[in-house]
Amino acid sequence: xxxxxxxxxxxxxxxxxxxxxxxxxxxxxxxxxxxxxxxxxxxxxxxxxxxxxxxxxxxxxxxxxxxxxxxxxxxxxxxxxxxxxxxxxxxxxxxxxxxxxxxxxxxxxxxxxxxxxxxxxxxxxxxxxxxxxxxxxxxxxxxxxxx
Length: 147
Description:
Blueprint: E1 2-7, H1 12-24, E2 28-31, H2 42-54, E3 60-65, H3 69-75, E4 83-85, H4 89-97, E5 103-107, H5 113-125, H6 132-146
């Protein structure tokens, strides 16, 4: 399984930890940057990772910035992306089960590193429930395609 990752300077440390964790678990990783702690613009890295997922060059995407909010909002501008904010374990699981999220974002300043690594595993190992949730995901996709 291939995972695309992106972060800004405020999420670089966690992105690096997540990459090491994923490689240890046997995942293929596409690092879309940033590669420095120098101030940078998070949308560029959100778009780069989201495009990899949207074009099916990666199965899922993981993003990190200071709060997780900005980078998530940017990723959700890419057609076909459903990026959630993994602010706790239950929401992380439900984002996959109910929303079929294909990307997740984390906030390095507001989330513990061990919590984030655990949520990465939860996100990547949880399946979409389908059923009544499929109709809702289809509505989102249909709206996205009509614009």
